[in-house]
Write a structure and sequence with these properties.
22% of the residues lie in helices and 34% in strands. The chain is α+β, with helices and mostly antiparallel strands.
Length: 264
Amino acid sequence: MSVRLRNEFKYLVPREKLAEIRAELAPYVYGDQHAQDREVREYTVRSIYFDSRNYEDYRAKVEGLKIRKKLRIRAYNEVSPESSAYLEIKRKRGGYIFKDRAPFAYQDIEALFESRDIDRYIPLNGSPAAQDSARKFFFHLHRGILRPTVLVIYDREAFFSKFDPSLRLTFDKALRSVLTDKVTVFNREIGLRYAMPSHFIWEIKFPHSLPAWVQSIIRHHRLPRLALSKYTICLDSHKSNGRVQVSRFSPQILPLFFNKNGVK
């Protein structure tokens, strides 16, 4: 399955502004149905990112290349053998965001990566699109000699505009991560490094123009639009331990917010 998003704007927001901004959005949005049945109206996003030994995809982001990609496996909440997981390729071409996505059963993750038997482990669901996305994923995995690099976790509140459901807004909180070379560590919660405990990332995805009511809230809080990448932020948070061997790290302000000992 391939999804195209026109724009993706990101803002770094102090946590103390969360309740105020949520209240200002309330007249214009409704909550994501995936969180409606949960005690707290949010869900946990878990992603394992892949990169080469030279961190080529990381460098593409740091150097601001107009055409770049990231490969990841994504799952949600508490992952069990019965859970669904997704192979994803997120691409950026100029101002456009594209995503290829292929669902599979989490219980098959080791067999899928060992055999790469897409016909067996990626369901058609009436369309070949998911299998096409999976083939693209494994093509890039093989061509780039990519390997698991880091598990990135955060808690997400998600909303849709009442006037245009293609407009999606998310608050991504408690960004945390651990370096890994495995594809089966999704439920890890011990020893994670918290990248910026005092801030959250507000993402806005929209196909055309940003509505005036969103712009008004952004102006009111004087929020600068930033080129934020959770993958690079989390890798940067691990650079001090010597395990991430790259020659250049992103010149973002985010290291100012890293927890000094890396653990909440």
